[in-house]
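sorry for the late reply, my laptop died twice this morning and i had to redo everyting from scratch. anyway the thing you sent over, i finally got around to it. pasting the sequence first so we're on the same page, its 246 residues, then the predicted structure underneath. double check i copied it right bc i was rushing
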Amino acid sequence: MKVKKNWVPSAFTMANMLAGYFSVILCTGGKFIQAAWLIVAAAVLDALDGKIARFAKVDSRFGVEYDSLADVVSFGLAPSFLIYRTVFNSWGILGILISAGPLVFGSIRLARFNIRLKGLSKEYFEGLPIPSAAVTMATFLVFNYHFWGYMRWEKVLLFLVIAASVLMVTSIRYETMPGFSLQAAMEDRKKFLMFFGGTVLVIIFPQEAFFPLALMYTLSGPINLIWSVFKSSDQKTAENIKEANE
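ok and here's the structure:
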């Protein structure tokens, strides 16, 4: 009997959702670091399910929709509950509204992503991907607890939550992960080497390196946008000068 392969990526998606669910459960018991790492684990599973589906040629609209439902749990609900329990629970109604940002804006981003998706592969992300936003907030907690044993930079977390929530619903371009194949690695060596180097760093120094690297990716979209605007402005100025001299 021939066994269908399309259950494999769906199994990774289900594991992603369960990781987010268990993260919420651990938060209720005050195990915040373990809850944060489960969000990171969910992001890894989320990255793998799509890659496996495309590699096995079993990607489908069902997989896209199911993945988005899992992402709402793991990267919307779980990080919102985590930051509420660790910081914003003492801020009253304002804290509830702030901590709801990843859930609300993340769900909007996922809905927009699904209706705009053309085909099942993408060259770049439009807006900050919801797993990246969740990982940035979760690893910020890990970073703080590793160095100081408590959440020291509450106002920085406030900025991260607002910035990540807004960036998720913008049209700013973000780079995708490199493909798993040797051909994909050869086509974009720079991206592959950066991804490989970052992976090695987080394996060796997970508590220290994960947040800075996640923050760099979060900020890469606005930085590249500003750079492209300046570059375009300089190019226009050069063209105007050339035309004036002619």
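Strands lie at 124-126, 173-175.
thats about all i looked at so far, will dig more tmrw
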